[in-house]
Amino acid sequence: MSLQQDTDAEVATPDGKDAIEVVQHVPRPISEVWARLTQKEGIEAFLGEGAMLGAKGDPWHAADGTCGVTRSYHPEQQVRVSWHADADAPATLVDLQMQPEGDGTLLTLRHEHLDESADREALRSRWDAALDRLTRV
């Protein structure tokens, strides 16, 4: 399946902290994208091998050392997690929004609260690849 990345921009959050945003249009219905995200393979495609999403407040851990807590989970709309690059890294916030667009789904991933030392290009690449894996058939 071919995916189109519509935009990829660095933006400032309302409180002045830096964020990156990755947007992709996926030529699959939102119900299929959500179903994939809620399965083990989809969660791991999104957050990393070993990651499992739980209820609000539940921790998650991936084999690459990234970790966080599920912050919110709204079927066919949004998943928000805190995200640490490793156990000692400061918390950031990853928000994945989805909405129907035509016959497909618009995915908007926003990674917020990045400090000056964050490698924004590496994070853009990470999340762009994660969305590709998540929506791959």
Automatic annotation (TrEMBL):
Pfam families: AHSA1
Spans through the membrane: none
SUPFAM superfamilies: Bet v1-like (SSF55961)
Entry-linked CDD domains: SRPBCC_CalC_Aha1-like (cd07814)
Domain Activator of Hsp90 ATPase homologue 1/2-like C-terminal: 29-136
Superkingdom in the source lineage: Bacteria
InterPro entries: ASHA1/2-like_C, START-like_dom_sf
Family affiliation: Belongs to the AHA1 family.
Protein name, entry field: Activator of Hsp90 ATPase homologue 1/2-like C-terminal domain-containing protein
Species of origin: Mobilicoccus caccae
